[in-house]
């Protein structure tokens, strides 16, 4: 019985040692990979391009791909631009369609905080109202985004 227990402890230590070595390797690789990543040069033209691609994917109900394009749009959008605000607003539409109402509300707030165009506010207000209704109906996934 003791021999078997000793074997199990040895195997557990081997697994832990292997896992620690793997973790260290991954951390080393991540540092190297992260050091080679360049920040995208801000460009409202590129932001608009990716947002339009996202819009086409959204209309085709390809929400995951549309979300990727909206994320790219946001990453390229210049600070304080309407492109940034519209990227957040479009991303809120994706989250609404996916039933991620809390994330939709967060993105609605981000859109407003980043100068979302007044002429489009009614659309955003309606989406916010619909999100709150869905949450009140108990349809939330209880995901709480970090602001």
From TrEMBL:
InterPro entries (UniProt xref): TPR-like_helical_dom_sf
Gene3D superfamilies for the chain: Tetratricopeptide repeat domain
PANTHER family: BCDNA.LD29892, SET AND MYND DOMAIN-CONTAINING PROTEIN 4
Protein's name according to its UniProt entry: SET and MYND domain-containing protein 4
Gene source species: Culex pipiens
């Amino acid at each position: 019985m003791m021999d078997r227990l000793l074997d199990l402890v040895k195997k557990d230590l081997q697994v832990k040692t292997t896992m620690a070595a793997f973790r260290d390797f991954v951390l080393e690789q991540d540092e190297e990979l992260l050091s080679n990543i360049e920040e995208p040069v801000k460009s409202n033209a590129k932001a608009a391009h990716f947002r339009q691609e996202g819009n086409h994917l959204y209309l085709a109900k390809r929400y995951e791909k549309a979300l990727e394009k909206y994320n790219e749009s946001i990453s390229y959008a210049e600070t304080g631009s309407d492109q940034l605000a519209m990227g957040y607003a479009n991303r809120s539409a994706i989250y609404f369609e996916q039933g991620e109402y809390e994330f939709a509300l967060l993105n609605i707030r981000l859109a407003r905080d980043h100068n979302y165009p007044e002429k489009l506010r009614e659309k955003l207000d309606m989406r916010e109202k619909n999100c709150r209704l869905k949450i009140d109906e108990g349809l939330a996934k209880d995901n709480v985004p970090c602001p």
